[in-house]
Q: What sequence folds into this?
């Protein structure tokens, strides 16, 4: 299995849990020397996920791909989601691999498909989509089009705000599930569970951690500072 974005906080947890399940893992990162885990079943691949040669070689060596690649909010154009997705899809088609899981965000879910969200979020979500989050969300949307337009066995996973609190078990459903946060541990567990699960094949799945108590401002501050 290949993990793109392996050195991010969700990527590291995905790699660790995969090793715990006895899987063989290839972890792609631009900073291989900074990757914290060493293991006999782990191959840390140094390279950029927008480099066709890097992606082709990495995909050729694996049987499934999980992408937790991410970019910070910025006013500048973002293309890492869609460019890496295009390369991964064509490399998987070339090498005959089928299973692809990609992570985007509930930020893409239209407000009228979100049940039971507070009035403030109902007002703020479209604002975030159009202002500070625009370039990232636009590129996530392009990534979703590339992935869902492919003939692969894809699943698009949309989490809400991610946190570093310990995972306590996720809830998931097609398109939308209540809950404003998801522990990265739980996101990683869902991604790995989906490797052998056909429930969300060629579907968009929402995931959250029920009952997660989060101090909103502290979480936002930590997410901004981690960049
Ligand atoms: N943070 C949230 O609250 C939130 C909410 C909803 C959805 N999401 C999405 O969930 C996913 C995981 O988020 P996260 O916060 O755990 O991780 P993240 O901080 O977004 O990190 C993702 C990793 O992607 C890697 N990356 C970026 N550009 C790359 C490139 N060109 N080539 C190779 N690797 C590249 C970086 O690792 P290297 O620098 O080591 O290469 C980075 O550590 C992302 O898709 C994010 O957009 C996040």
A:
């Amino acid at each position: 299995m290949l993990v793109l974005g392996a050195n991010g906080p969700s990527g590291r947890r995905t790699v660790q849990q995969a090793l715990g399940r006895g899987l063989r893992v290839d972890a792609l990162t631009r900073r291989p020397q900074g990757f914290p885990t060493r293991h006999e079943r782990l191959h840390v691949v140094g390279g950029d996920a927008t480099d066709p040669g890097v992606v082709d070689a990495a995909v050729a060596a694996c049987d499934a791909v999980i992408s937790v690649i991410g970019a910070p909010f910025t006013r500048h154009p973002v293309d890492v989601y869609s460019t890496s997705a295009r390369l991964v899809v064509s490399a998987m088609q070339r090498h005959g691999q089928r299973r692809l899981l990609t992570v985007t965000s509930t930020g893409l879910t239209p407000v009228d498909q979100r049940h039971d969200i507070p009035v403030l979020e109902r007002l703020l979500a479209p604002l975030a989509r159009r202002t500070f989050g625009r370039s990232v969300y636009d590129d996530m949307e392009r990534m979703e089009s590339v992935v869902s337009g492919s003939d692969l066995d894809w699943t698009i996973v949309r989490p809400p705000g991610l946190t570093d609190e310990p995972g306590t078990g996720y809830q998931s459903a097609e398109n939308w599930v209540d809950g404003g946060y998801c522990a990265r541990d739980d996101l990683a567990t869902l991604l790995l569970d989906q490797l052998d699960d056909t429930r969300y094949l060629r579907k968009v799945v929402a995931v959250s951690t029920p009952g997660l108590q989060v101090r909103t401002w502290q979480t936002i501050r930590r997410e901004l500072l981690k960049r």
Q: What stands out?
A: Residues 74 and 93 are 32 Å apart (CA to CA).
